């Protein structure tokens, strides 16, 4: 899922701005979602059943969320 697809899946720039407590023009001006904001949005997207954190961060999810590591003890 691209950054633009994630924003649209979450309801568009206005909805994402509201979720993050920032202004809509900030979201509209992103070429890429800043990593700290994307991490927060990944959790929201997973909670809403839109996508998983693994799908949004396929190469780095294990470094961000240690509980998702294959050998993590639940």
Q: What is the count of structural domains?
A: 1
Helical residue percent? 55-70%
Global shape: elongated
What is the CATH-assigned architecture?
Answer: Orthogonal Bundle
Please summarize the sheet with the most strands: none
Strand content: under 5%
What's the end-to-end separation, in Å? 27 Å
Q: Total number of helical segments?
A: 6
Radius of gyration: 13 Å
The CATH topology assignment is: 434 Repressor (Amino-terminal Domain)
Going by helix content, strand content and strand pairing, the class is mainly alpha
On the 0-100 scale, what is the average pLDDT? 94
- Quantity of strands, as a count: 0
CATH class: Mainly Alpha
Give the low-confidence spans. none
Structural description of this entry:
The chain is mainly alpha-helical and 74 residues long. The chain has one domain: 434 Repressor (Amino-terminal Domain). The chain contains 6 helices and no strands. The longest helix is centred in the middle third of the chain and has 13 residues. The chain is elongated, with a radius of gyration of 13 Å. The mean pLDDT is 94.
Brief account:
The chain has 74 residues and is mainly alpha-helical. The protein is 55% helix and 0% strand.
